[in-house]
């Protein structure tokens, strides 16, 4: 049996990765935060908080429930996996996407390519 010791995740890095993905896809779709909120049945403040990786008042890290992720994916017309960071590797203590600007840029390129292949030029 694996004797791996439990360590708390640096959840903020994952929240910021999800927020970055949300901003990239929203902008590709040419939606404002208000547009996305209306399409998803959420408040614009929720979209803003998720994009910044913060909760109400900015005092805590955002932690969206699964239904919120699916509502956003549906509103953006993308698979939910496009919003979730680091899906191709085991969960690390911190999101690999947050290690450098190069990693963040690579995510943007990957999402643009995925959306263009899936939906054509009118992503």
From TrEMBL:
Domain HTH cro/C1-type: 22-83
InterPro entries according to UniProt: Cro/C1-type_HTH, Lambda_DNA-bd_dom_sf
Coiled-coil parts of chain: none
Stored PROSITE patterns: HTH_CROC1 (PS50943)
SMART domains noted in UniProt: HTH_XRE
GO MF annotations, alphabetized: DNA binding
Signal peptide boundaries: none
Protein name: Transcriptional regulator with XRE-family HTH domain
Organism: Gordonia humi
